[in-house]
Amino acid sequence: TQKMGSCSSQSCQSCFFEYETERMIVVKSKVVGSVFRLIQFLILVYVIGYVCVVQKSYQETDSVISSVTTKVKGTGFTNTSDLGARVWDVADYNIPPQGDSSFFVLTNMIVTPNQTQSTCPEVSCIQTGLCMNYKETVKTCEVLSWCPLEIDINLPEHALLAAAEDFTVLIKNSVTYPKFNFHKRNILPDVNSSYLKQCEFNRKTDPYCPIFRLKDMVSEAEEDFQTMAIRGGVLGIMIDWSCDLDWPEHHCGPKYSFRRLDNKIPENNVAPGYNFRFAKYYKTTDGRETRTLIKAYGILFDVIVFGTAGKFNMVPTIVNLGAALTFLSLVSSVKWSHLQNTHYL
Question: Hey, is 297 helix, strand or coil?
Answer without folding.
Answer: strand
